[in-house]
Amino acid sequence: MAEVTAMPERIDRGRRGTYGAFALAVVVALSSASWLGCGSSDSGSGSVEPPPAPPADFEATAADFDCILSWPRVRNIRITNKLSADAEAEAVALAQNPERGKQFPVGTIVQLFPGEAMVKRGPDYDPDNNNWEYFELRTSAAGTEINVRGRDDVINMFGAQCFGCHVAARDFDFLCEKNRGCIGLPVTDEVITALQNGDPRCGG
43 and 131: one domain? Predict the structure, then answer.
C-alpha cells in the first residue's frame, strides 16, 4: 500500500477534517477490495483445472495400424499411442525405462513385426491380461486388414499363441523384449529390422 504523507499545514482545521475523513474512506475501500481479490475464487486466475479422466477404452480399427517405420523405435519395438501425443510420450518413456509393475497408458500400440500387434485396452477389457488385445494383421500397400483379434485365438508368425508367450513378462506389463522369461524368437535383430523396413504400407 502506498505511504500516506502528512497533509499540508496550509489546509485549515475544517478542511483538514473533511480531507481526513475522505482519505480514510478511500483507504478502507481499497483495503476491502484487496482483501476480496485475494480471498475470492470467482476471479478464475490461478485456479487449477483437475486432470482429465483417463479414457475408458480404446478399440483399435484397421486404420490405426499404419507404416511401422513412422512410429518411435525403442530398441527393437515400434510403439505409439493413438489417443494423444502426451500418451505416446508416456508410452515411449516407459518402454525406454521399464518400471516393474507399471502399466502402459490406454491406447498404446506395440509392434515388433508389421503383421502382429498388441493394443492396450480399457481397465475392464481383460484384467487378467493387463487389458492387452492381440492382433494378427494382413498388410499391403493399400493398408491394413485385421485377420484375428482378441487373446487366446491370436497366433504369431512362428505358430505360438501371443498371450501364452507374453504372460511370462507380466511384471513388465506383458512386454517381452529380452530376458523377461518369454520364449525367445528364432530370428536375429537384423532380421527384425529387415522385416520392419519391408513394411509394404510405408510406400518404399
Answer: no
